[in-house]
Amino acid sequence: MNNVKLAVIYYSSTGTNYKMAEWAAEGAIQAGADVKILKVPELAPEAAIQSNPAWKAHLEATKDVPTASLEDLEWADAIIFSSPTRFGNLPGQMKQFLDTTGRLWFQGKLANKVVSAMTSASNLHGGHEATILSLYTTMYHWGAIVVSPGYTDQSLFAAGGNPYGTSVTVDREGNMKEDVRGAVIHQANRTVAVAGWVKNGKQVQPEY
Ligand SMILES: Cc1cc2nc3c(=O)[nH]c(=O)nc-3n(C[C@H](O)[C@H](O)[C@H](O)COP(=O)(O)O)c2cc1C
């Protein structure tokens, strides 16, 4: 069987979701996938970025991370998204990227992608689930196969127990308050496993 091809697509202003993307890549590689870590384009005005030293430093530190393209979406059997919470929703940067996928969607090329999502927020009840669910709404329109972690591993409990997708709270300095590395790795392992079942299954069953 060919390896599962997995894209980890993230947006991050201050590094949290980049770190989660790196852990997801680690888990997916461990599970045998070919992996790309890709960022979505930054859209914020330069003045806003310059006014926040952590944002400016993160952008500089990740300037060599490749930018996600429609070709990457076509390439991937599976996609793990990681995106901060903004007012209980996705940041415009991630939404704008999703909004560029209309042509692929129209051509049916996003159907049966195996997907999963993660997020971060500053407050425990600041909208973690809402952000993940809003991303999953787009995935349902794609005809993607959403793989949530549920409570399929003990690591979920140490990480705050979000069954929709791993999420973490960050303090004012940007430090993660929960240890979510194990949960992210489990989520990536699980996403690759399900993507492998789908990829194998496509060889024996006609595709819908
Ligand atoms: C405009 C804006 C809106 C935000 N909205 C929320 C929110 O609704 N709930 C919350 O808990 N945190 C909110 N935050 C905090 C971010 O979620 C937090 O900074 C982010 O998760 C850090 O991720 P990053 O380091 O990957 O950028 C907001 C931050 C900004 C700048």
TrEMBL record:
Pfam families referenced in this protein's UniProt entry, alphabetically: FMN_red
GO molecular function, one term: NAD(P)H dehydrogenase (quinone) activity
Residue span(s) of domain Flavodoxin-like: 6-192
EC number(s) stated in the UniProt entry for this protein: 1.6.5.2
Keyword annotations from UniProtKB, A to Z: Oxidoreductase
Enzyme class: oxidoreductase
Cross-referenced PROSITE patterns: FLAVODOXIN_LIKE (PS50902)
Protein family membership: Belongs to the WrbA family.
Protein name per UniProt: NAD(P)H dehydrogenase (Quinone)
